[in-house]
Design a protein that fits this description.
- There is one protein chain.
- The chain is α/β, with parallel strands linked by helices and about 450 residues long.
- The protein has 18 helices and 14 strands.
- The chain has 4 domains: about 10-135, Response regulator (Rossmann fold, 3-Layer(aba) Sandwich); about 140-315, Rossmann fold (3-Layer(aba) Sandwich); about 320-385, Helicase, Ruva Protein, domain 3 (Orthogonal Bundle); about 395-454, no CATH class.
- β11 and β12 form a beta hairpin.
- The longest helix is centred in the N-terminal third of the chain and has 31 residues, at about 110-140.
């Protein structure tokens, strides 16, 4: 006759023996059930790595159930069973009131205990299988919103997929404006173990340093003039989840040091507070600038760069993704057709050639806007190029740059031309000119400093 089928060799049976009573029984039960056996002292806590499915307190544990539960830190889904020699119903009732799942009088209840253990182990296995399936499905669908099959994109997504299992890994996403950095950050969050917790985003270039500090770290009432009530910072709001810091290169130097301290010490202090708060947050940062150059220019702390640069994911520009532009165009056609309730047009061969020929300096964001504009301006069910306005390059403008002229005026004209080329996107214009945003501002005003003329 075959022995019992093992329930799960990954599960474990934990025994807290307060005496030597029934000591020979536990290895036999573990062998019959096909699980490992973990022996715990009464002052030990459960370790997550033990994969314990059920705990047995045995040999005089009847009067210590409450203390045992508190010391063991037994999660609610792991039952504590008590085994003893007393056959008193009063003892059994006291054990249950103290928090145990059941009481077994040995040796008479040995078979009943075995059945209870098998049922607990089955529930544990089923719960683990459900969790594994949920994790697998979350990872499998994490990148479903990111459209494209090009080798350049797939290489980045395959690298990103390897980080999904690591809920605490800091990730730095790089790429030009409009390449989908926020979309990738969301995929990393919702495809990982922190998916049930908040995803909180902050554009570091959107606020001045004084407001940004309060936004990140929070403040107490009365910390400054308008602080009429205490406010938690985004580190606290994102507790257990992910904090996405976009345009991290724009973060002021004084805030960079505070961010580094928060990452290293896993705690933050609100403005006006005297005590720090422990945080459990994963950081994903993004930039369309070269942080290496920013470090060299002393605009970005080198130690913070290394702290953020644990895993780097670079999103390729649309011009380097081949036929992905057509896949994305079809995707946006379907989206806007549904959004506006108009027939989805077929893209003609001429339209496809035009879409592939365009350099897309604004990347996916520019393509999305171009498709939406074309659909709105074309007759229903059609897609006409009149609604698609390509952005011409500087070389094709007939060179509106003044010449001959002073170097200052030439720089100013180049800055304005690049700003027009990028549709008013100052970060992108600065990146293409190879300067910082602050230097671009000076160039636009026509007041370069000595470094600008070097």
């Amino acid at each position: 006759m075959a022995g019992p089928t093992p329930v799960s060799r990954q599960s474990a049976l934990a025994v807290v023996a307060l005496s030597d009573s029934f000591a020979d029984l536990w290895p036999l039960l573990a062998q019959e059930l096909g699980v490992s056996l973990v022996s715990l002292r009464s002052d030990e806590a459960l370790l997550p790595g033990d994969l314990v499915a059920v705990v047995i307190a045995a040999g005089g544990a009847e009067g210590h159930v409450g203390d045992l539960i508190e010391r063991l830190g037994t999660p609610g889904d792991i039952p504590l069973l008590v085994a003893g020699a007393s056959i008193s119903h009063r003892v059994a009732a006291q054990v249950l009131v103290a928090g145990a799942a059941d009481y077994f009088a040995l040796p008479d209840d040995r078979d009943v205990l075995r059945s209870a253990l098998r049922a607990a182990l089955e529930r544990h296995r089923a719960a683990r299988d459900r969790q594994a399936l949920a994790t697998f499905e979350g990872q499998a669908h994490a990148f479903r919103e990111i459209v494209g099959t090009s080798a350049a994109l797939r290489a980045t997504l395959e690298r990103a997929a390897r980080t999904l299992a690591y809920a605490d890994a800091t990730v730095l996403i790089t790429g030009e404006t409009g390449t989908g950095k926020e979309l990738l950050a969301r995929a990393l969050h919702y495809g990982g173990r922190r998916a049930a917790a908040p995803f909180v985003e902050l554009n570091c270039a959107a606020l001045p340093a004084t407001l940004l500090e309060s936004e990140l770290f929070g403040h107490e009432r009365g910390a400054f003039t308008d602080a009429r009530a205490a406010k938690p910072g985004l580190f606290e709001v994102a507790g257990g989840g992910t904090l996405f810091l976009d345009e991290i290169d724009s973060l002021a130097l004084e805030l960079q040091s505070k961010l580094l301290r928060a990452l290293d010490q896993k705690e933050v202090r609100r403005l006006g507070a005297t005590a720090s708060r422990v945080i459990d947050v994963r950081i994903i940062a993004a930039t369309n600038q070269s942080l290496t150059r920013a470090v060299e220019a002393r605009r970005f702390r080198e130690d913070l760069f290394y702290r953020l640069n644990v895993v780097t994911l670079e999103l390729p520009p649309l011009r380097a993704r081949g036929d992905d532009v057509l896949l994305l165009a079809d995707h946006f056609v379907r989206r806007f057709s549904s959004q506006y309730g108009i027939p989805a047009p077929e893209l003609s061969a001429e339209a496809r050639r035009a879409l592939q020929a365009h350099p897309w300096p604004g990347n996916i964001r520019e393509l999305r806007n171009a498709i939406e504009r074309a659909m709105l301006l074309s007759p229903p069910g059609a897609f006409q190029l009149e609604g698609f306005t390509p952005v011409t390059s500087l070389a094709s403008t007939g060179s509106d740059l003044p010449f001959p002229t002073t170097l200052t005026e030439l720089q100013r004209a180049a800055a304005h031309a690049m700003l027009a080329l990028t549709g008013g996107n100052r970060s992108e214009a600065a990146r293409r000119l190879g300067v910082s945003r602050s230097r671009l501002q000076r160039l636009l005003r026509g007041s370069p400093d000595e470094a600008d003329l070097a």
